[in-house]
Amino acid sequence: QVQLVESGGGLVQPGGSLTLSCAASGFRFSWYDMSWYRQAPGKERELVADISNTGRTTKYPDSVKGRFTISRDNAKNTLYLEMNNLKVEDTAVYYCRAVIGVMTRWGQGTQVTVSS
User: Fold this and answer.
1) What is the CA radius of gyration of the chain?
2) Spatial separation of the C-alpha atoms in residues 74 and 5, rounded to whole Å
3) Cα–Cα–Cα angle for 16, 76, 113, nearest 5°?
4) CA–CA separation, 103 vs 5, rounded Å?
5) pLDDT at 53
6) For 3-18, what is the mean pLDDT?
7) Does residue 45 contact residue 110 with C-beta atoms inside 8 Å?
8) Which of 13, 18, 62, 95 has the fewest CB atoms within 10 Å, counting from its CB?
């Protein structure tokens, strides 16, 4: 079955960096575009970054553009999110997402807390 397992979250000071990972299994990872989303307390889940199946095309909302970088290693079936210059408002649970045909699959999420 499809599994997405995020890791790498934690507590970091403003201006700091973290890199999240999402280990994928149960589907042909290299065939599908992938995404990172986040959800802060009391807010709706929002898109953080998209990447095409080859990794050649990426997209970001203005809120993270220039600070976050999405990448993937298709040989390792792993998705990454490098986050730099983190801000307090980046505090959220971060999820990776796969859309496989008509199915949408989410990981369990990893908490990122930015605080001094």
Assistant:
1) 13
2) 15
3) 25
4) 17
5) 97
6) 98
7) no
8) 62
